[in-house]
Design brief:
It is a single chain. By secondary structure, this protein is of the alpha+beta class. The chain is 45% helix and 9% strand. It has eleven helices and six strands. The strands form two sheets. A four-stranded antiparallel β-sheet has the order 3-2-1-4. A two-stranded antiparallel sheet has the order 5-6. Helix 5 runs parallel beside helix 8 and helix 10 crosses helix 11. The protein starts with 20 loop residues before the first helix and ends in a 7-residue tail after the last helix.
Length: 361
Amino acid sequence: MSMIGGRRRPGPGAASDVINPEVSGVLRSAAAKGFTGSIDVTDRLTRGTARLFMYEGGLYAVELPGYVPPVAARLGVSDAPAAEAAVAAGAVSIGALAAIHQEFVIASLGAVLALPRARTHLRKGQTSARFCTLPLPVDPLFDLVRMRADRLAGTWAMLATDANPATTVALRGPVAGSVVPRGEAFTLLEAVDGIRTLDGLAAAAGFTRAEAVHLASVLVDSGHVVLADEHLAGPTGGPLLVPEEFGTRVPDPVAQPSAATQAAGPSPWSAAAAVAAAAVAAVPPTAEEPLVDDLSERKDLADLDPVDAARAAVIALVDELQDALRAEQAAVERTAEVSRRLREARAAVDGLESGVPAPAT
């Protein structure tokens, strides 16, 4: 199906039968060329611009206007500093953080690909240090986005047929006080207050819409949750509650990191933690700067009482991780530059071998 004539974006609970051919074509072309930079995708209806960040042809971050992934809520902590401490102290593994970031990246990509009409613009060399994952190959993502859309539509069809997750309120069910569900289902149930919609619950608990609908179906089946018959009008202002809202309404702007904060390097819990910290962890310690796994061996902590020593250890580890992330970011930038020069050198060799002079630089 083409983009010609009156195509409308599917509703929040409907499957997307079309992936925008212009956006997907640009993504495929950028991936084939090993593109490093951002692809800005502007929705022609709301005028909102999403930014898809790629490194050497792989997608590693998606930023949506009016939306900040609720990673702190997902980790079960109150704010960014608490999340930083949890990551630095090892309470949250890098693998778990990477999985959380990847969920937000894929859900955001799905919202961008579902835009009926969009325009694109490539910006070479642009990078992001916010809510990243390891670079993902592009082609498999299209099938994944379709599968997620179909699963969301199928699950929602079993819950409600005349509403959507943006307008449907969840209520405590008849067995809410009996056997307590586990894991993420319990996290979503804890947020149910009879006021929030499913999208609101997703934002409060740190989920995407796709995750919240799946968990809600589990809770409805178990009798812990029922969906209200009366529906709300849906949000008209405020930030986006879930990435899947992108392109459906104009959000209020949200605060972005200041230039000074970005210059200081990525925070351990946000942006590049899943990428940079994983790479740092894979590098063995050098003889000059051995790593100390047992914090009790730290001389600067020996004279403190246990509580103060534990707090000081967390602060020290946060500082160390920030230094490591800065070093890793510099290494990534250096790798991108060397990769660019290598491509130019290979092109020059190919030109000489074919008798065609290389273009002047």
